[in-house]
Fold this protein.
Amino acid sequence: MKIWQKLSRIVPLFALLTLVLSGCGRDNLTALVPKGEGAEINYSMMMISLYIMIGVLVVVFAIYTYVVIKYRKRPGQENVIPKQTEGNHLLELVWTVIPIILLIILAIPTVITTFELAEDYSKDENAVKINVKAYLYWWDFEYPEYGVRTAQDLYMPTGERVSIALTSEDVIHSFWVPTLQGKMDNNPGEENVMWISANEPGVYRGKCAELCGVSHALMDFKVIALDRPEFDKWIEAMQAPPKEMTTPLAIEGQQLFESKGCIGCHAVGEQKFEMAGPNLKNFGEREVVAGILYYENEQEQRDQIANWLINTMELKPGNKMGKQVLTQDEVDALVEYLINLKVLED
Amino acid sequence: MAHSHTKKKSVVWDWLTTVDHKKIAILYLVAGGFFFLVGGLEAILMRIQLMGPTQEFVDGATFNQLLTMHGTTMIFLAAMPLIFAFMNAVVPLQIGARDVAFPFINSLGFWLFFFGGLLLNLSWFFGGAPDAGWTAYAPLSSSDLYSGSGVDYYILGLQIAGIGTLAGGINFLVTIINMRAPGMTYMRMPLFTWTVFVASALILFAFPALTVGLALLMFDRLFDTNFFNVAAGGNITIWEHLFWIFGHPEVYILILPAFGILSEVIPVFARKRLFGYTSMVFAVALIGFLGFMVWVHHMFTVGLGPIANAIFSIATMAIAIPTGIKIFNWLFTLWGGQIRFDTANLWALGFLPTFVLGGVTGVMLSVPSADYQYHDSYFVVAHFHYVIVGGVVFGLFAGLFYWWPKMFGTLLHEGLGKWQFWLFFIGFHLTFFPQHWLGLMGMPRRVFTYLPDQGLDEGNLISTIGALFMGVATIILLVNIFITARSKVRAGNDPWDARTLEWAISSPPPEYNFAQTPLVRGYDPLWVEKMDGRTELTPAEPLGDIHMPNGSIIPFIMSVGLFIAGFGFIGSNLPAILIGMGTTLVAMFFRSVIDDHGYHIHKEDLEKDLKEGK
């Protein structure tokens, strides 16, 4: 595997060219600037196949251009009948054998890397294991060894292969974090195992890649890669019981959260069973509200949470939360409560 | 029953009852062309929605209907019937036959396709079109918890249209095996006929998988069975297998005849014999065979494991070999020729580099460890449009300009044709080339919107502009057809200096095709005669009475019956089901008991036709 990766780095010229020509996309979303071992393998295979195929293209396009220019019909040729060639065994042999050789060259690393990517770390004691369950239109992340559950933001340590077990609650979804690793399907009724790794800390964008319904396009999530000590700290913080709310408004919000029935679908803190909605224990620390509502500062975060509470069904049509009837005061209280659902800050 | 063929019929009745392969070809061309416009409109609406980030031109629900109907329409209701149009128009002529083996079934095939397509599209007006993608993966498609009633129309519409396609495929198999003129051995058959032969065999083996899948889906949706209900022990992966066991050969059902068209057009416009005919034939057969061995490459991310993925990966790569052989053979047919750049050949010459680009990304996609990134992203969208538009549609346009004079007796306007070609060709590459990058930059397919600031804006804008180019090009084609239909300039028998049998008879051909069945004296039979200084074919029989089949309204009635029954199943309306099925059964009964001997065209009439130069 390493050889192929190196090979792909020796000849980065073309890759560079394509990037210059078209931009390489957002650096935490694009598969063209891999930031994880899996994506590097994907990328190296893309490049190997691309180089071989560019070789083919050059030959074909060269012959094509030559014949189209050279053998145009010219005036005065009406009475000349071109030689009616039936074929040429040598030539035909050449363009049968050369592709076979090229494909064998491609097939060997293909098979090696396909098995490499299919390594199963689900029984490996050293690997962090995460159960990823997809719902219409959000993601549940469970850390069975630690008794931790969260949603939408997947936390993982850098520099190690994390074992991911994929399932679905309803229809087929597909788990895709282009910068870290190619995708794999979340099938209802079956479990798929893959691994994922990140070379450096960062926030990586993830998407659902299989048509799953009206809001398929809005089923985004994030992967937050932390260095191992930070990750351990996060796990510890998630394991601790939820913090008490301190301000009166937040306490009012907490009471509304219970009396309005939010708690029927959303656990805050420990969660033993699957519930209809995402776990909100660290909701205030989510990178993005509901996967799609970005913010820059706390005020925008508050606005986006309020926006979500009021316009749920418009923002993500077909989701299971349903239209919430809330007064402005109730929204304010709930926002205050939700934004304070944090585990890391003091 | 042998009444004369001069008996006057109304125009509408004539078209409803015709069993003449040339008229059925025109029916397929008109209906397929209509659905091509509908599917194209759906594509343009989607591209307008995706022109910029977070636009609200259409909502997510409508977008899912558009993407489902675009795919379904283009594959089943546009590309397939347009292929069938040329199969019907050309194959019997190319093999020197007077009609297909089963003219009645030919007509039935068309009307089943037509009413299946109609049923599918009526979903727009009855509660919304199907919205689970043209692949209709279960359980998204199998439960009304997740998808709308439109999926019922998808199931019933495709089931009815599928019976028609299956019948058509069998018909052409039998025709090509049994009805070749004397001397037309297999290894003298024109390559278009060969590709139709292999594609028909693929239809025979591939469509039943779809039929079974659709039946299971129908049972789950309408009768609450649990084939795809995981909670009750069902299995969702079965649909994916059944669909792609059909779906992958389907790609070859479309592209092989396009290869065939290219193999007719290029030799004629290069004025050279097709290079490497034998290897072309074997390549077609091999592609058809391997086409059944590779369906799992659509399912690399399903989680079937590295062994399955690796095996299907290598099988997929293997297809590149016969495909490469074809490309080089075409290039070397051009080599040393006298290439003319008529519009038909422009499409063929546009096909070559475009299809090669699609083939190249196809090989890239066959690598599972890279495909995990490409799969279900815009990279795949780019790839299959390079193959289906750059391959199939370019091929169909080449065929349209090439065979139009044979089908209608007039020449399409060359100037407009070239405008259409260049606009479409440039628009096509503008639309789909950037999509390779969009996919790699993290854009999943089938999304109705995307957020700003993801690096996806420019690519999508360029893509939409390209789509509008293709839209304008298509309008130019319509104008061209309109002008051509009005101008009525006669084309003559052989406007392109062509090589195969169909160009030896008048344009359009008389209903009996060949007054005398020709004797085929070699590959490219008309060219052989031309090289011997003759302008006509050598006849294989003396002039005599020709036996012709009667037209029949029964295929139309049978199809209407199934159409009504389809509606009945969708609405769970028992009377409608009974009336519909009853209509079809009664029509089948009459077909069985009426003894239809057809009629004869008499020798004297033929002599009169010949004298008039028909």
